[in-house]
Amino acid sequence: MRWFWIDRFVEFHSGASARAIKNVSLAEEHLHDHFPGYPVMPGSLIIEGMAQTGGILLAESLKFESLIVMAKVPKVVFHSWAVPGDTLTYEAKLLDAREDGGVVECVARIGERLLAEAEYVFACLPNSQSKTACQESFLKTMQLLGAGDSVAAAAGGASPSGTN
Amino acid sequence: MATADEIYAKVRETLVEALGLDDDEVTPEATLVGDLGAESIDFLDIVFRLEKNFSIKIPKGELFPEGFNAADANLVKDGLVTEQGISELRSRLPHLDIDKFAKNPKVENIQDLFTVQMIVNYVQKKLAGGAA
């Protein structure tokens, strides 16, 4: 999987909440067309980034045993926009997790500024080894990047102060 | 104990949220798929919201039937739900109006059983005690 729209988890509380960041860069090609002369991060990619934060939170809570796919976005509200140089913080809260799906609530901010709010319904599909491994390995990569004790613990690291 | 009216109001609110409807679109007879435009993934969303709004637990397959889309020859044959399928629906999902369905048991007609009133009936039984 290369379709990553988060750069790093900075907090990960298994089965409860997660916080990830996304740094917007002018090197991202689509920004040159969206819009010419005035680059703005597409809202759809902000939705995707929040979904990835929440989706991996859900996948981890289910031990990466099924493939998590975003099924529905019942609610999304944009309050502002993001431009190159911004660091977006996605905060996801797991509201419900079960065998066949889950619900996540997510908020995006730039510093203190509220950027977007969304709610997601995820469906759990039968295990497809390569794909679930992908979601799992992303969390392991986060561990290598030293992205916080709680992430390390969720990724199977030996952090004593990890999950809460 | 919630009255039937209170349950109906809350079910309506749940469907308005889940399906992005206006209050007046929801009537007791309205079918979820045909009239209210629900898609398969909405059923999962509706179950989540009902659980939250009524503080109940809805086991998989208890509110909406499962296994009738798949090619299980015991339940579905030539596009029709078999005798065994109908009796399973009757025992597993007593809140459905099976008598009406049994007159024309085409698989695609199952979704016509999913009405707003059906959900109200289910929740009512569920709140009255244990499994609906």
What can you see in these coordinates?
The complex is a heterodimer of chains A (164) and B (132). With 164 residues, chain A is of the alpha+beta class. Chain A has one domain: Hotdog Thioesterase (Thiol Ester Dehydrase, Chain A, Roll), CATH 3.10.129.10. Chain A is 25% helix and 37% strand. Chain A has a 6-stranded antiparallel β-sheet. The longest helix of chain B is centred in the first third of the chain and has 16 residues, at 4-19. In chain B, helix 1 packs across helix 2 (40-54) and helix 1 crosses helix 5 (116-128). Chain B has 2 domains: 1-62 and 114-132, Non-ribosomal Peptide Synthetase Peptidyl Carrier Protein, Chain A, CATH 1.10.1200; 65-113, no CATH class. In chain B, strand 1 (76-77) and strand 2 (80-81) form a beta hairpin. The two termini of chain B are 16 Å apart. Chain B has 5 helices and 2 strands. Chain B is mainly α and 132 residues long. The model of chain B has no long low-confidence stretch (mean pLDDT 89).
Give the percentage of residues in beta strands of chain A. 35-45%
The major pleated sheet of chain B works out as: 2 strands, antiparallel
Read across the widest sheet of chain A, the strand sequence of neighbours is 1-2-4-5-6-3
Number of domain modules of chain A: 1
Overall body shape of chain B:
globular
What is the H-and-E element order of chain B? HHEEHHH
CATH architecture of chain A: Roll
* Structural class determined from secondary elements of chain B: mainly alpha
Shape call of chain A? globular
CATH superfamily of chain A: Hotdog Thioesterase
**What share of the residues of chain B does DSSP label as strand, in percent?**
under 5%
Q: Please report the number of helical segments of chain A.
A: 3
Name the CATH superfamily assignment of the largest domain in chain B: ACP-like
